[in-house]
Amino acid sequence: MKMRRRKSEISPDLTLDGVGAPHQQIERAIRSKIQTGAWPPGYRIPPEEDLAFTLGVSRAPLNKVLNNLANAKIIVRRRRLGTFVSERTDNHAVIGVIDIRHKIESANKTYSFELLEREVVDAAQAYGWQEAVENERLLRLELVHQANGTNEVFEQRFIRISVIPEVEFETFDEVLPNEWLLARLPCTRLINTIRATNADRRIAKALGLAPNEPLLVSERRTWAHTDALTWVKLSFPGYRNEFIGEFSPLQPLASLG
Q1: What is the four-CA torsion angle of 27, 32, 35, 37, rounded to 10 degrees?
Q2: Does any domain span residue 4?
Q3: Nearest-angstrom CA–CA distance, 202 and 73
Q4: What are the average pLDDT values for consecutive 10-residue runs of the chain, which has 257 residues?
Q5: Sign of torsion, CA 36 67 139 223?
Q6: Which of 59, 67, 84, 132 has the most neighbouring CB atoms within 10 Å?
Q7: 255 inside domain
Q8: Do 107 and 132 have their domain in common?
Q9: pLDDT score, position 111
Q10: How many beta carbons lie within 10 A of that of residue 154, not counting itself?
């Protein structure tokens, strides 16, 4: 008699977060494995049948997610051989990206976010983002990342609509901009600057700080292929945050993002 497999025998730590549509949750679960290095470049992803069984979903949304990730060159689907994490992920997709959701959940806290502002603006409003083309339309977003319901990180972002036109119609009510973008386009270049500054009134109010209280700021610019794609500024309360970097030549780069 054929024995039914248990989820724990396939991939016990691959789970859905319950936020948003099934395909969005599946994308986040798979991307998390790749971004954190748990599934390194070249890793053979479990067959669709096993993934569907593990996650408790039908094959249709799962196949949609895998096709999106393949089109974004995050994974490679090889006929009769299986699906693999792209070798390019090691060098491009995860280096320097601060995964706020992962950091909060790693501290055994519940992650959530709230979208504060969303509007289409002219490039002149992009805070001097040098790669933005004069007079082009950008999507401007502001949101806060939360731990146990408390605002922890303030995010400001601009996205070039000309590079990914469908972004103009995404509400971002249920999916994070960074996760949405990584599911559709590869990150082929990234420049990240970390500096100290003081909180202005708007950021201070959002994070529950006094005006001019110290912040640690990560300012990131990313490209997809040769196109500048997004500018992101993450503001962290200085008194309870620090950035630590470590590199070992014997450790895969994918685990250092």
Answers
A1: -130
A2: no
A3: 38
A4: 40 71 83 78 87 87 86 82 71 54 88 97 89 93 95 96 95 92 83 89 92 90 91 90 57 38
A5: positive
A6: 132
A7: no
A8: yes
A9: 95
A10: 25
pLDDT the model gives residue 97: 67
Q: Pairing relation of β-strands 189-198 and 75-78?
A: unpaired
Q: How many CB atoms lie within 10 A of CB 136?
A: 14
Please choose, from the candidates 182, 160, 227, 165, the residue with its C-alpha nearest in 3D space to the C-alpha of residue 69.
Answer: 182
Question: Domain with 76 in it: what CATH number?
Answer: 1.10.10.10
User: Do 117 and 154 reside in the same domain of the chain?
Assistant: yes
User: Does 81 share its domain with 149?
Assistant: no
Beta strands in the chain (DSSP E): 44-45, 75-78, 82-85, 111-122, 137-147, 150-160, 189-198, 214-224, 227-237
Specify whether 84 is located in the same domain as 104. no
Distance CA 116, CA 35 (A): 26
* 0.70 exceeded by pTM: no
Whole-angstrom CA distances from 56 to 16, 48, 52, 243 are 9, 12, 6, 37
Q: Which domain holds residue 204?
A: 100-240
Are 52 and 172 in the same domain?
Answer: no
d(CA 30, CA 220): 23
